Amino acid sequence: MATTARFSGIFCPNIVPLDEQGNVHEAEVRRYVDWLIDRGVHGLYPNGSTGEFLRFTEEERRRINEIVIDQAAGRVPVLAGAAEANVKETLAACEHYAALGAAAVAIVSPFYYRLGPEAVYAYFSEIARSSPIDITLYNIPLFASPIEVETVERLAGEFERIVAIKDSSGDLPFMMKLIDTVRPSRPDFSFLTGWDPCLLPMLNVGCDGGTHASSGVAPELTRQLYDAAKDGDLDRAKSLQRRVTRLFDSCFAAAEFPEGFRMGVSLRGFAVGPARMPRSDRQLALDRAARQELALLFESEGLG
């Protein structure tokens, strides 16, 4: 049986600060978690795409979730990234994060091998039958096998453990069809958007919230945008959406994703450490120029 309430609000897919040796910087992760919560995020999402889950070992991924869940200490729910390369390891992660007290796990659709709808359905079905914790489907067709509307409808209808979807396609008609198809029979099912430039229109068509890389850099902006949309203050919401989009576009263009967002977090006062992915001398030179441009944007936006 599902155990969580319907997810809503801003869930931050946080980056992972590293020390000078490239290891997880636990003290800085904990300080970052406190900062995000203090600035209004409704929940945390460690080990997502922004958190570079594929660039950490299985042991490191578990440790990252352990630190975030422990530091959150029940103040906000934690949607623990549990994406592994196969069903067996994913279920082991589900069991571990359930024991830690995560509110739910997020599991990306099968990646590397491009699978069709029936294979995607079979994959999530196998996990849902045995998972001790609620599951959020993670649809990111840019990097993984797409999760079709009909697949979500089948999974939501058959498994109460599957309680939400995070969709990072940015496809508004897709999300509208998804909500119209699933919500009538599963009013408890949550719909979260993962594409920053369309948070406002997604909220307006019925999304419950979002998980955005921008939230890790400027959580106060995405939270204010969410609140304005829910309060019906459309003019303020549109102004905030433009600010979030400028921030997102600038961080996204600064370097290969998600390095620009790591730059952004460092500009907010955190020691993010070296990139997990090696950077060439030319990239490092470009990084310095990009950081200067981002600093000017942050200054103009009042993001000290």
What's the helical proportion of residues?
Answer: 40-55%
CATH architecture label name: Alpha-Beta Barrel
Total individual domains: 1
Overall geometry: globular
Q: Give the count of helical stretches.
A: 11
Strand order of the biggest β-sheet: 2-1-8-7-6-5-4-3
Q: Uncertain runs with pLDDT below 50, 5 residues or more?
A: none
Oligomerization category of the chains in this entry: single chain
In percent terms, what proportion of residues is strand? 5-15%
Explain what the structure shows:
The protein has 304 residues and is of the alpha/beta class. It has one domain: TIM Barrel. Helices cover 48% and strands 10% of the residues. The chain is built from 11 helices and 8 strands. It has an 8-stranded parallel β-sheet with strand order 2-1-8-7-6-5-4-3. Helix 6 links the parallel strand 6 and strand 7. Helix 10 packs across helix 11. It starts with 8 loop residues before the first strand and ends with a helix.
